[in-house]
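Page 47, continued from p. 46.
Same chain as before, 354 aa.
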Amino acid sequence: MFGEINHQVLYTDAAFKEFGEKHGYLLAQVPYHPAGRFLLSFLAGKIPEWRGRYSSSWLKKNLSGKFSSVYAFVYSTDCMKYAHWIAKKCKLHLVVHLADHSPEFERLCSANILLEASKLVCITEEMKSMYERTLGRNDIEVLHNGAEQACSDIVSPPNEPFSEQNPFVLCFIGSLFSNLHGDCIEDFFKAVSEVRAKCPWIEFHLYGQRQPADFLEDLICLDGFTHHGVVPVNKKFDVMEKAHCFVIPSSFKEEKHQHYRYSFPTKLPELIASGRPILSYGPKETATNRILKSNNLGLRIHDRSIPKLVESLEILVSQYQESVKKFASFSPTTREKFSADGVRRKLKNILSFN
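Result:
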């Protein structure tokens, strides 16, 4: 999103250290370990935070450039609070971009930061509406990932008839979290197994990390199922090109749904641009299903039902070209809405304070 904007990246979670070091990003672990042995490191400006206090010395040593604003892409209050402190310390505009909703953002301290922010951005229209109600702001923007032109340029899916030499490939791309995808992703394994009894050349390929690492361990080893791990960036379009249909599972458990309903997978724009059908399985109130419905896209199943999944998969396999036209055809206007170039232009405008 920052392809056209001069910027410096600071991240607050050491879990991304390998990626951050590879790209020259600056790690500010916040919160840092609260152990008393780190007090001297904090006082010496060697660490950015200790027990809720932030180090001006660390900031001065590590961020010496001239900046016009602080942009915080957040899914945790710790990151947002630190960005707010930096903005106040350096007398800069603060732009908060909420990637996920959490009840923590509704607490008084967090709500005050969201109210004080120069600009507030949400990742979906549903999230925007919710924060408009809770905060009383009427200037909230909506911005999410876009799809590069390369997604639209990948070749059309191979024609049927499907066979062992030309298998039908069902594909999931993204991180699999037991707390978000449990109690629904398992249904795909059961449905695919049923379809394979009649059509043994349907395959389910999954790409991305699993949290915890043993999530679905007893299922991915079955015939017809393969978990490939994280997709290398230079292989992403090859993976997408081989797929005939992408799946997006969302838990039907109410307590999980309430947390996830305002967000959607970051790769959704890319999946839309690929021209493949998307099989969305989850409550109709999720942001994913609202986006697909508003753009007349995707095959959407809103009730938890393995028989409905089986029926949908059989339709996709037996009537594939018709399904592509029905579930994956979108207008030039929709294409522009989800394009990466359009997203970059909009972000540049949001970060303009002239």
